Amino acid sequence: MRASIHRRQLLTAGAALLATMASRAADRENVSPGTSPDPASGIEIWPTQAPGMPTPPPVETLWERSPNTLIADRAVRGVTRPRLIAFRPDKPNGAAVLLFPGGGYDHVVVDKEGYEMARWLASRGFSAFVLFYRLPGEGWAAGPNVALADAQRAMRVLRARASDFDFVPDRVATMGFSAGGHLCADLSARFATRVYDVIDDVDAISARPHCAATIYPVVSMRAGVAHVGSRKLLVGADATEALEAAHSPNQTITDHAPPHFIVHAEDDAAVPVENTLLLRAALKAKGVAVETHLFRAGGHGFGLRGAAGKPAAAWPELWQAWATSMGLA
Q1: What range defines the domain where residue 62 resides?
Q2: How many other CB atoms are found less than 10 A from the CB of residue 70?
Q3: pLDDT tens by residue, 230-276
């Protein structure tokens, strides 16, 4: 069941958003597929300071993880300005993809699960947006809901600005990797859950994705199944069963969730494949369409580059075929 987005609602919300953001020269949103935008730039998703700022605020830090100077593999933590980095296709196909990179809720991966995937998508006609989201272990008032608040707001902002980027508001998909896969599944499960106070008319827009892709996702917060680092930072090492359940998408998914595409490698030593199996079973139980690909080899965190030469290398083309069958493009 798709959430409808009324044209009048979008026009009103879009006008409100543009009015509050018109003076922000830092948007710098005209990024072509072959470029590498400054991670400090982007479209800020909150019209003023992000809600629930801790004292003292986190300090944003960007660092390079790659030993190869020819291959970027940056990560960022301490995000206080949640923002979208936009990659425009040369020939838009009318669809957009909101990307949630991973990082174990300790940091946000910039290149491997962000910019590289965005360039791949843009080269195929999709408007792609990488979300730099806030992290739950950094003292924000929303606690374990802070990244979800950014994901909901980002989806609404994109739909309000769809005409600026030549895509149809209803045709916005999500794709998340590892902990970003958890955020992707959490948004699919709780897109209508109020996790922040209404700020403007943009917040009346649906945050439900058209379809969702979770790539080697963290799903369950149950000890023994969850990725240890993600669980510790999201709900705490001593989380109660109730808190674990509240932040495990396999336990919060509803029959209103969007169709899902799930990818996992069975030799993943970081995030057990059981996470994907639990999410698939929950979606099937709710009657939600789901396509699942389990690969013999691939490990964890393969993204695009890490899957080369392995069975898992097929996943991006499989996703595109599936997304087309779902009416995304």
Answers
A1: 7-325
A2: 5
A3: 999 999 999 999 999 999 999 999 999 999 999 999 999 999 999 99
H helices of the chain, in order, are 7-21, 116-122, 146-160, 179-190, 228-234, 241-246, 249-252, 274-285, 315-325
Distance of CA 16 to the CA centre of its chain: 24
Nearest of 300, 310, 316, 315 to residue 109 by alpha carbon? 300
Within 29-71, where are the H helices? none
In a domain, 315, yes or no: yes
Count of domains for the chain: 1
- 2 within a domain of the structure (yes/no): no
> What is the CATH number for 46?
3.40.50.1820
User: In whole angstroms, what is the distance from residue 35 CA to residue 65 CA?
Assistant: 20
Sheet containing strand 212-215, edge to edge, reads: 43-44, 83-87, 127-132, 94-100, 167-177, 212-215, 260-265, 290-295
Termini Cα distance of the chain: 18
State yes or no: pLDDT of 2 exceeds 80.
no
The reply to whether 166 falls in a domain is yes
Asked if residue 21 has pLDDT above 60, the reply is no
Do residues 280 and 262 make contact, with C-beta atoms less than 8 angstroms apart?
yes
Closest CA to 288 of 328, 260, 320: 260
1 inside domain: no
For residue 284, the model assigns a pLDDT of 98
Can you give the pLDDT at residue 40? 81
> 58, exposed or middle or buried, with CB in 10 Å at 0-12, 13-18, 19+?
middle
Cβ–Cβ < 8 Å for 265, 296:
yes
> Whole-angstrom Cα distance, residue 251 to residue 242?
11
